[in-house]
Design a protein that fits this description.
Number of strands: 3
Radius of gyration: 12 Å
Number of helices: 3
Shape: globular
Mean pLDDT: 87
Structural class: alpha+beta
Length: 73
């Protein structure tokens, strides 16, 4: 996980479904987070929505506990 992944996950920390229009337009980041199981997506009434998974919360917590200097940029 790198700082860009963490920044995206910060938008999803409340655990609820967030419409993609409220999130940064980072297609590669979204694809990586989905592929690793850190977020999930669905088609809602207002379009595509994302939320953080339990695995994503655990990964975020572990990354935040590490020395920030060690995070990949």
């Amino acid at each position: 996980m790198n700082i860009h992944h963490l920044q995206f996950l910060w938008y999803l920390r409340n655990g609820g479904w967030i419409n993609e229009s409220m999130l940064p337009d980072r297609r590669v980041i979204k694809a990586t987070l989905l592929a690793n199981g850190w977020v999930e997506s669905r088609c809602g009434q207002q379009g595509i929505e994302y939320r953080i998974t339990d695995l994503g919360l655990d990964e975020e917590a572990m990354s935040c506990a590490e020395d920030p200097k060690q995070l990949k940029t």
